[in-house]
Write a structure and sequence with these properties.
The structure is a homodimer of 334-residue chains.
Chain A lengths: L22 E5 L1 H4 L10 H15 L36 E5 L6 H7 L9 H27 L4 E3 L8 E3 L2 E4 L3 H8 L3 E5 L1 E5 L3 E5 L1 H12 L3 E6 L4 E2 L10 E2 L1 E4 L5 E5 L5 H9 L8 H12 L4 E6 L3 H7 L14 E5 L2
Parallel strand pairs in A: 1-2, 1-9, 2-6, 3-6, 9-14, 12-15
Antiparallel strand pairs in A: 4-5, 7-8, 10-11, 12-13, 14-15
Helix pairs in contact in A: 2-9, 3-4, 6-8
Chain lengths: 334, 334
């Protein structure tokens, strides 16, 4: 995604959270959907991730909150009588943003929603079709989280009134998100088709939403759940790819690999060169994460539904990174 | 529903529509769902209503905008290449609000969401479960409208940041709705679980939303689609029930039946007495409609998916009510 950030000076007075936000989690599209199968959820991963999120929140016994029929099923969940009012707990505050994966991309790219031009029927149709697809995914994620007892609330950026201008965030008032968190809910936002003041419409990506929310809400840390162990120095499918364990970000936003010590200094150069790659790969991800780390917020990029993601979600990495942990930490260089 | 109105003085500066809003349509829960079957859509009615809406909007040839897989199906709609950019038209502006029917009610009533108390796990669970159910219905309605080529956009009152205070609307900014209409979309709102400043949470009903939007956006007329021919002087299942054809509303909000001339004046009295009925029946509906009619906006209450609803949606009743038309007109008495 080639969207850029700008300071959101147009954002109206932000509400302050009563209890600080503990963690923002990005559910990467590749981690929770089957990338090469249109509109197919990776049910196993989504279920494990939901369970790990519940443990990270310290939610206590699971109380299913999805009382709706499953698509195609006549069975009615009858969990309602099991809810025990004595079980009130004080969980840590989480916020979730998810990508699109195999939802939305097909519709958006077929119609060119990101390029704008809502007066064209094809673009308008694609806008509607994209929102149908991404909100379908959002609803399925809400239901998976609710089945784990996470009080999740779907919130579409479009409905929240978020808009862009020249594809940068123009208005993204977080007061409704703040109110939902304060009321004890876990808002679940997503990459969405939105209105753009200059070109009519565009796609607001999940990663841009994460950066904006991290800046506004200042969580203790941010976790990106993905389908590989972290950030590599080259495509992880290549045999000599090296997992970057720690990336240090300086206050001017520049960054360098701290762990492992790359023997070959040309590696560092390759990573810099790859910054010109526009496919939204590794370097885009590092740049987005560096924006957040610059604020003093640790970022963990980790493979979803593994012991490593479980540790990251529990906040076990904030003091010290254990040797056995696989993933990428991106944080302010000391 | 025993919610009451108050003037929404807390509503922030309303944006003005570039093109006036032509019509607000209420899709009654009883008209588009099977009332006695949990979470079951009345597919035939919904499909016919969608088609009638398209005709009312004067949308031109149908261009399917739902490019997603149907639940349980592997088929991918391949309508994308059929979209013809030359077919740009200038349809009339519509806005849709739907009720819950057999979606949401079960979850809301089991947990008492309308009575508030979010600190109780049962209420919080019910809030999440209610929103899952009503947004599932919303998504299915969006898809049905999109299949007809109506550029529909789901907008949940919760996500729009709408809140209540003592169960009356406190904040319900319509600027995002206005922007969506101006961009050529048909916003589709719904009765929703929302946060309440005084009691924590409540249910904001579709009828209250309609009144608020009618007041703010001043459509030419409002159509309530329901499962009976209109408003009767007694439950329509009773053999001597009389369809009230025309109700006149005075500027003080009081109303009386103009057509048919009720020979028996005690009938009029019975209707007034029934106002004490709290089941949200006929008189509640008349009162809500009278609030709108008082603003000079005609209200038609009509059976969904009939020739009568088709006429109402096309705006064929604004000058003269044809003899053959079955339904109830509620308007300012001249």
């Amino acid at each position: 995604m080639d969207q850029h950030h700008q300071s959101t000076t147009t954002n109206s007075a932000a509400l302050t959270l009563t209890t600080p936000l503990h963690c923002i989690v990005k559910l990467g599209g590749s981690a929770i959907t089957c990338k090469n199968e249109l509109e197919t959820i990776n049910e196993n991963n989504l279920s494990t991730v939901s369970s790990q999120l519940r443990q990270g929140m310290i939610l206590g016994p699971s109380q299913g909150m999805d009382w709706s029929r499953r698509p195609g099923s006549l069975d009615i969940p009858t969990v309602v009588d099991e809810v025990d009012d004595r079980l009130a707990s004080n969980p840590k505050k989480f916020l979730v943003v998810h990508g699109a994966g195999s939802f939305g991309h097909f519709q958006a790219s077929k119609s060119g929603v990101h390029k704008g031009g809502l007066s064209r029927p094809l673009v308008k149709s694609g806008f509607v079709a994209t929102r149908i697809s991404v909100t379908t995914l959002n609803l399925e994620i809400i239901r998976a989280l609710a089945r784990e007892g996470i009080p999740s609330i779907g919130m579409s950026p479009f409905s929240c009134g978020w808009t862009t201008s020249e594809r940068n965030i123009a208005v993204a008032d977080t007061s409704t998100v703040v109110k939902a968190i304060d009321a004890g809910f876990v808002p679940v936002l997503h990459g969405d088709a939105v209105l753009d003041n200059s070109q009519g419409c565009t796609i607001l990506s999940g990663d841009v939403i994460i950066s904006h929310l991290a800046e506004q809400l200042r969580p203790d840390y941010v976790v990106f759940l993905t389908d590989v162990f972290g950030v590599y120095d080259r495509p992880p499918t290549e045999p000599d790819a090296v997992l970057l364990r720690e990336i240090g970000v300086r206050e001017d936003g520049s960054w360098s690999v701290l762990q492992p010590k790359l023997q070959d200094t040309s590696r560092q150069v390759e990573i810099t060169v790859a910054a010109h790659d526009t496919t939204g790969g590794m370097v885009t991800k590092i740049s987005e994460a560096a924006m957040i780390a610059k604020l003093g917020i640790d970022v963990y990029i980790v493979k979803a539904a593994t012991d490593h993601s479980a540790r990251a979600l529990k906040g076990k990495l904030t003091d010290d990174i254990p040797d056995g942990w696989l993933g990428t930490v991106i944080r302010l260089a000391k």
